[in-house]
Amino acid sequence: MKLTYIPPEDVNGETVVKYQSIDVIPEINRWRSSAIGYVMELNPSFGAIDRFARRYEGYGLEKVFKLASGIFC
Q1: Is residue 2 in a domain?
Q2: For residue 64, how many other CB atoms are within 10 A of its CB?
Q3: Do 38 and 70 form a contact (C-beta atoms < 8 A)?
Q4: Does residue 49 form part of some domain?
Q5: Dist CA 53 CA 62 (whole Å)
Q6: DSSP state of 44
Q7: Are 21 and 15 in contact (CB under 8 A)?
Q8: Average confidence (pLDDT) over 1-22
Q9: How confident is the model over 52-72, as pLDDT tens digits?
Q10: Domain membership of residue 35 as a residue range
Q11: Residue 1 included in any domain
């Protein structure tokens, strides 16, 4: 696979990045059926969030990830 670089352009004072749709389609499909949650005022363990999320396995839940403190997907 050949890597190419497409430099950003300045359009009306804003930086615009162009990309080919083939570059992002796999990620769009991956995140299309994702849920992201944020827990406010508490700091639950990953295990607690994982157990809570397992209640929704019938909806196609496969994995739970911790993105940052209190943010799970």
Answers
A1: no
A2: 17
A3: yes
A4: yes
A5: 10
A6: -
A7: no
A8: 85
A9: 888 877 777 778 888 777 777
A10: 9-72
A11: no
